[in-house]
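Changelog-adjacent note: as of this version, every example in the card shows the full chain rather than a window. The one below runs 136 residues end to end.
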Amino acid sequence: MTTPPTVLFICQHNAGRSQMGAHLLDLVAPGAFLSTSAGLNPADEINPIVAQALEEVGADATAAKPRQVTIGDLSAADVVVTMKPGLQLPGPVVGRRIEWEFPNPEQWDLVGVRSMRDAIAAQIRTLLDELKVPAV
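Full-length structure tokens:
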């Protein structure tokens, strides 16, 4: 049995953008990847509005906890997606590094977060097309 490739999503606080990336990847390509997320300066909890927006599309973020990105994460990931350009990571990326540009939704309402959720989902579908992985 082959282990699926690991995709690591990174943002500043691991409370919004990177959580959406990991949960949405699981939703649109179930079982195709080991998806995870982390932050450079993790928040205490996932943004509740982000969790609500994810729940609306069938992604369960109730157990999600922000966590610090580690050098081990960077070396184990086949693909590292930073959700903001220019993030200074704690070590080198061994796999492929992709930089996306999404603003911090920390103070956003549900309408704004829904819009970002949908934009991230579209970006994930584009990545899946590149990687030749079918989406649901």
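Structural remarks: The chain is about 35% helix and 15% strand.
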